[in-house]
Automatic annotation (TrEMBL):
Record-linked NCBIfam families: hflK
Source species of the chain: Consotaella salsifontis
GO molecular function: peptidase activity
Any Pfam family the entry gives: HflK_N
Gene3D superfamilies with a match to the protein in the record: Band 7 domain (3.30.479.30)
Domain Band per the UniProt entry, residue ranges: 82-250
PANTHER family cross-referenced by the UniProt entry: MODULATOR OF FTSH PROTEASE HFLK (PTHR43327:SF2), STOMATIN-LIKE PROTEIN 2, MITOCHONDRIAL (PTHR43327)
Lineage, opening ranks: Bacteria, Pseudomonadati, Pseudomonadota, Alphaproteobacteria, Hyphomicrobiales
Name of the featured protein: Protein HflK
């Protein structure tokens, strides 16, 4: 069946569709939502009316107002972006009014300035480091001439931080570069007054402190706003071209030190032995002195006691001393002494065994007979 014969006719006759119905509007129950094409068409119309040169005088006025609003909003965003700033924890801010720095420093946090009449610069406050002299990169800034005309390659670092942010920003154009040049110049000055051994090992700490003082004084004169915390000498060595010769010298010096130590050790050993012998001789002399003194004192006391006894009984004491002395003298003699008698006789018994008495006296100690007044002596008859 042809479409024209459907109920309601065709699109042209009865306004119906191909199924006998015409185009229908929004149906009840679908929320009266507009068509997507309608929405797009309305947006395009509004945009054409808002743009300059659009249809209608009212459209031109609305477009100009919108452009002005957008420009003001953009300027406001730029102004806020430049007026609000943040200072990090390791920084301080220096605000400037018409280019002149303020006295107050901005601490870490969020701050606000009236840009563009006020601006701000941030300065780091943490400790920084500058390395001078690097043999790996063939940097010749560390080559220096020592006081004893030796070339030495010194590698050192400068540890510093900002002490005065305003001076740091406005007094010196390049504070870090200036610090590097001043530190290098000060190190050359100090090394040029010292022997090379002081740089190698003897007095590195003294050299570093002297360089730090010179650098700090120079920075203070320029008002750089920097404080040098320390100078660290990381390495000091001869140039590679003469390193072997310096190594030979170092080995010779080490041998010299070893020989000196061995000589000192031998000297201490010999000196200790000599001191021990001397102490031993002194002790022996002191002992001998004490013994002799004590013996002398004993003899003196014995003599005094004998003298006292002699004063009491001179004859008896004299006779006793005589007999004791003769006993001591004649006890080791092989002679027999016989006291003659008063009648002039021999006083010797013919059968007296004198030889046996002499032998007996040699084998046995002679006994002292103080009663008859004789020692191994034969009296009369």
């Amino acid at each position: 069946m042809p479409w024209s014969n459907q109920t309601g006719g065709g699109w042209q006759g009865g306004g119906g569709g191909p199924w006998g119905q015409g185009p229908q509007g929004p149906r009840p129950g679908n929320g009266n939502s507009p068509d997507l094409e309608e929405i797009l068409r309305r947006g395009q119309d509004r945009l054409r009316r808002a743009m300059p040169g659009g249809s209608g005088g009212g459209g031109n006025a609305t477009g100009a107002a919108l452009v002005g609003a957008l420009a003001v909003a953009a300027l406001a965003v730029v102004w806020v972006f430049n007026s609000v700033y943040t200072v990090q924890p390791d920084e301080v801010g220096v605000e400037m009014l018409f280019g002149k720095p303020k006295d107050e420093l901005s601490q870490p946090g969020l701050h606000f300035v009236f840009w563009p009449i006020e601006t701000v610069d941030t300065v780091p406050t943490v400790e920084s480091q500058i390395a001078i002299g690097n043999s790996q990169t063939r940097d010749s800034s560390g080559l220096m001439l020592s006081g004893d005309q030796n070339i030495v390659d010194v590698q050192f670092s400068v540890l510093y931080q900002v002490d005065n942010p305003r001076n740091y920003l406005f007094n010196v154009l390049d504070p870090a570069g200036m610090l590097q040049q001043v530190a290098e110049s000060a190190m050359r000055e100090v090394v040029g007054r010292r022997p090379v051994q002081d740089v190698f090992r003897d007095d590195r700490a003294g050299i570093a402190e002297e360089v730090r003082a010179i650098v700090q004084d120079t920075l203070n004169e320029y008002g750089a706003g920097l404080r040098v915390n320390a100078i660290a000498i990381e390495d000091a060595a001869p140039p590679r071209e003469v390193a072997d010769a310096f190594d030979e010298v170092q080995r010779a010096e080490q041998d010299e030190d070893r020989f000196v130590e061995e000589a000192n050790r031998y000297q201490n050993e010999q000196l200790g032995q000599a001191r021990g012998e001397a102490a031993k001789v002194r002790e022996q002399a002191a002992g001998y002195k004490a013994r002799v003194v004590q013996e002398a004192e004993g003899e003196a006391q014995r003599f005094i006691s004998v003298l006292n006894e002699y004063d009491k009984a001179p004859d008896v004491t004299k006779k006793r001393l005589f007999l004791e002395t003769m006993e001591g003298v004649l006890s080791h003699s092989d002679k027999v002494i016989i006291e003659p008698t008063a009648e002039g006789g021999q006083g010797v018994v013919p059968y007296l065994p004198l030889d046996e008495l002499a032998k007996r006296r040699n084998t046995q100690p002679a006994t002292s007979q103080s009663g008859n007044g004789t020692t191994a002596t034969q009296g009369g008859n």
